[in-house]
Structures are given as structure tokens and as C-alpha cells.
Amino acid sequence: MTRPSIHDATLRVRYSETDAQGIVNNAAYLSYFEVGRVEWLRDAGFSYAEFEGCGFGFVAAEALVHYKKAARFDDELTVRTKLAEIGRATLRFEYEILRGEEPITSGHTRHGCVRISDGKAVRIPGDLSAAFEG
To answer: What does the pLDDT average to over 11-26?
Structure first.
């Protein structure tokens, strides 16, 4: 597993993600962040599905979104994602969403590692933690 510094994922705004004014609903950006995060992990050689299969998961502990410009139906967006911080039991990702080169949104999320069986916070497994730190 190799840690990518930054991963770009491309998505197109779906009609269902817009409000009555035709603008992307503010909550949709958290889903876009998730697309970026899952693709960053995949690019690092990490399958989130396999991680859950081993009995672990990451839960959202914090989310921050800075809205800069409006995105609209059918816009092609790039979700630029990087792992900004890794702790013993947490990961912090930073995001920038672009339309072409134009910044639309930025923000971050923090996730805690949990054991799925009981929801208890646990350390990130050593092999995974080492790969992320590398």
C-alpha cells in the first residue's frame, strides 16, 4: 500500500442533488467529500469494504465545509482529497472541490476508528496506520 499525497476524483452533479434554485444543496458536499475520501483510500490500496469485513470502521467525528461558489446541475467537479493528519485512532482529510480550476468548496472531515461489533473507539490497526504514515 502506498500513500498518495493528493487524489483527484471527478463527478458530475446530479439533478437530485440540487435545490429549487438549481444549486447544489449544501449537504451534498459532504457526500462529495465521501467520494473523494473513498477514492483516496482506494488509490492507497485500501479497501474500505475489506476493513469493515475485518470488524473495523471509521465514523465521522467532525465536518467543516467552506462554501465559495455555487455548483449546478450537470457541472463536472473535481474532488481533490489529501490525508492531512493521522492520529492513533483518527484520520483527518482535507478537500477542495473545483469546477475546472475554479474553487467551489473546501473543507475537512475527521474520522474515528471503531470496532463495529460494539462501536468502541480503537486504535487504527498497525499495518494500516503504518501504510498511511508512509
So the answer is: 96
Where residue 60 sits, what CATH number does that domain have? 3.10.129.10
The SS3 assignment for 67 reads strand
User: Who's near 20: CB < 8 A, 6+ residues apart?
Assistant: none
Tell me: pLDDT of 2 over 60.
Answer: no
**Mean of the pLDDT values across residues 65-71?**
97
pLDDT at 131: 65
Residue 67 CB-density burial (10 A; 0-12 exposed, 13-18 middle, 19+ buried): middle
d(CA 98, CA 89): 30
Number of Cβ within 10 Å of residue 59's Cβ equals 12
How many other CB atoms are there within 10 angstroms of residue 104's CB atom? 22
The pTM for the full model equals: 0.90
Note the helical H segments in 1-134: 28-43, 48-53, 126-133
Distance CA 129, CA 123 (A): 9
Evaluate whether residue 68 is within a structural domain: yes
* Per-residue pLDDT at 47: 81
